[in-house]
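Thread: "does anyone have the structure for this chain?"

Original post by V.I.:
We have the sequence but no experimental structure in hand. Need at least a predicted one for the grant figures.
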Amino acid sequence: MSVGVVLAAPAGADASASATETTLGYNNARTNWDADEPGLTPTSVTASDFGKIFDTTLPGTTSTTPNQLYAQPILAHGTLIVATEENLVAGLDPQTGALKWKRSLGIPWTPNGCGNLTPHVGVTATPVYDPDTDTVYVSAKAVDDGTTYQKLHALDPSTGQERAGWPVTISGTLNGIRFNADNANQRAALLLLDGSVYLGFASHCDLGQYVGWVVGVNTASRQLSIWASETNQSSDEGGIWQSGGGLVSDGPGRILLATGNGVSPPPGPGSQPPSTLAESVVRLQVGGGGILAAKDFFSPA
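Reply from O.Q.:
Generated one for you, C-alpha cells below.
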C-alpha cells in the first residue's frame, strides 16, 4: 500500500510563505481558523487551478510496512513534518513534496491482541512545533531490547536532528497506579502550553489495566508532571482518545480534555471534581512546579 501526502492550494501560491501550521487545529483552541490565510477566497477555491500540489510516497513504504499516517502533518519553519506508525519522521518541501530529511524514532511496537492500529504502532499523535525555539516535539512508541517505551522527542525541523538532552521517557506513578507504556495509547494531539508539552493517553482496545493520563514535559528542565483520570487502584479506564483531537487550552495554565468509558461521576457540572472522572469533560489547572489538578468537570447523563 502506498501512502501519499497531498496539499491543496491555489496554483502559484507559496506554501512556505504562509503562516506555519504549528499544531492540530491551527491553535490551542483547535478552531482550525487562520485569519491570515493568503489567497484563500471563495473565488480561488472554486477556480479550475485549485487542487493538488504534490503526491509523495514516503521512504520505506511497502505492502508490509505501509507507513500509515494518523498524525496530521504540520508546517514548521518552511518544512512539512510528517510522522508515521513506522516511527518515521520526514521533512518535506511544502511546495514540491521533495524529501529534505528522514529520521527513525526507533523500532515501532507490534500490537498484541488489538487490531485497532496495524501492523505497527509508532507515532500516532499529531506533533507540535515551538517557533520560539525552532523545535518540533514528537511522541513515539518504540521497543528497545524487548522493553516498550513512550518517548517525547525534540527535533530540528530543518535537519531532523534530535536536540541535546532528548528524548524524554514518559514514566511515573500516581496513587499507586504506574504508567505502563505497553497498554498506553498516545492518540490525542500534543499541546504546547507555557513552556511545556502535554500528552494525553488512553489504551489499546481497552486491554489491560489502564487510566487516562495527562503527562506534561517541561521543555527547559525536562521535568515531568502527571495526572490521571481515575486515581485509585480499584478503578481504571477513563482514557483520553478524543479521536486524535488535541488537548485544548483557552488560556494560561488551563487544559481541557474529554475522557472515555470507566468509573463516571454523577451527571452534571461541578467545581469539586471527584477522583473518578470517566465519560466527562475536565478542566485541569497547571499549578506551581507544573502540578496538574482537576478544577472543573461536566459529566452527561
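V.I.: this helps a lot. DSSP finds one helix and 21 strands in the chain.
O.Q.: and The radius of gyration is 19 Å.
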